Amino acid sequence: MASTFGVNLMAEAGLVRMSWRRALVSGVALTFIAGFVNSADAASRYGRTQSVKKRDVANKLPFGELPRGPLQMVVSIGQQHVTLYSNGTRVAQARVSTGTPGHPTPTGVFSIIEKDRYHRSNLYDSAPMFYMQRLTWSGVAMHEGILPGYAASHGCIRMPTDFASRLWLITRLGVRVVVARNDPAPYEFDHPKLFNPRLKPVAQLSEVQPALRSSIESGRLVTLAQATTADEAPRMSDVVDQAPVAQPAQEGEPAATGVTPPAPAASPAAPQAAEASPGAEPEKREPVDAEPRKPMPPRNRAAEPVKHAGQVAVFVSKREKKIFVRQGFIPVFDMPIEIANPEQPLGTHVFTAMEVKDDGTRMRWNAITMPAEHSANPVEVRSKRGGKNADQPAPIAHAKAPSSAAEALERISLPPEAVERISELLTPGSSMVISDHGLGRETGRYTEFIVLTQ
């Protein structure tokens, strides 16, 4: 009886131990599973949080997360709207109100040349033109304003307040704006005659003067004053009123007149110093409160190279048979060009450098082609009808259709030195405009090339 009771107790103890072991194993397993689930859930929540944060950041941006690349804008007078492109992709569109027939908005190729958040008109009784972005110095700008649903301005481009305020935050000076009757859109474009980046060649030691070569090899810093020839100096011929501004002379520095000042006359003490014995100690002078300032050697500022910064703007004009180059709104140079089949119009085409590709050796471009509104060589046909309208000219018949963008590039022959200099300055955002028209009357100080097609 006692033995049976002992056996039962041992069995029950074993069962208890087994139950504890099972409970322990189950608890560990459940803890592991719970931890794994919690980790997965935390990771999922973290991923969702990061996505939400990215969406929140994108939502807080004026137009969301834009494609990385230059901005472009196209204003359609016919459809009364403006379209914003980033890296060639359409990102937004808004209604506008352009100029009336009595005060038309000019069509052509422009760029933003000034921005003013709280601008007021100096022509129309200080009328508010907030979020102003100027296109010409004569008074054409984009700004917020009343939109009645039709053209109603005095030449400016009115935009909705919401769009104008957001646009003002993301643009910068130099952003290209195309104003046209219709609604041209940018398209990807590639052509062998478009510019590609080119690094400036490093000067070889063999080309350096022997007197300077030893200084370079010894590690001493040598500053070279590079003289420019008349052909290499930046020319200002594309703008009549752009005369170079004289630089004020620094303190203690003579004015840069280009004339070397006469040498100072020898002092009376000079012969005595020459007659002194070589071993004689020079006479010591008593210290003075202030040493006289020694005059700086004269500098020939005209011989110093002019450095510019900013995106490059190129204009090829069929009318003037020249290529004009500006950088950062400042003229750099212009050169004559050759155009095949000069009797045929080139059209107006805007090429924009979008992105550097292939390890910096190639530039990606897009193009905007403005459909011809007027032929460069119109043929006027007189009406044959009688009556009071007999002397009225009939609609103009165009002699030849303008070239496409590729055909226009094929017909133009640029000087190799011009291509080389432009390629060395090329950056994303730079542009080239080809047109039958000449320099617009609006092109002037602190502008890129303004090409008026109307």
Strand segment tally: 21
Distance between the termini: 122 Å
Beta strand %? 15-25%
Shape: globular
Can you walk through the features of this model?
This protein is an alpha+beta fold. Among the domains are: 71-180, L,D-transpeptidase catalytic domain-like, CATH 2.40.440; 187-200 and 306-437, L,D-transpeptidase catalytic domain-like, CATH 2.40.440. Helix content is 22%, strand content 21%. The protein has six helices and 21 strands. β2 and β3 form a beta hairpin. The longest helix is centred in the N-terminal third of the chain and has 59 residues, at 2-60. It is globular.
What's this, in brief?
Helices cover 22% and strands 21% of the residues. The chain contains 6 helices and 21 strands.
List the helices and strands and how they pair.
Elements: H1 2-60, E1 71-76, E2 81-86, E3 89-95, E4 108-111, E5 114-116, E6 132-134, E7 141-144, E8 157-159, H2 161-170, E9 176-180, E10 187-189, H3 210-217, H4 269-275, E11 312-317, E12 322-327, E13 330-336, E14 338-339, E15 348-357, E16 362-370, E17 378-379, E18 397-398, H5 405-411, E19 412-413, H6 416-425, E20 431-435, E21 451-452
Parallel strand pairs: 1-9, 7-8, 11-20
Antiparallel strand pairs: 1-2, 2-3, 4-9, 4-21, 5-6, 6-7, 10-16, 11-12, 12-13, 14-19, 15-16, 15-20, 17-18
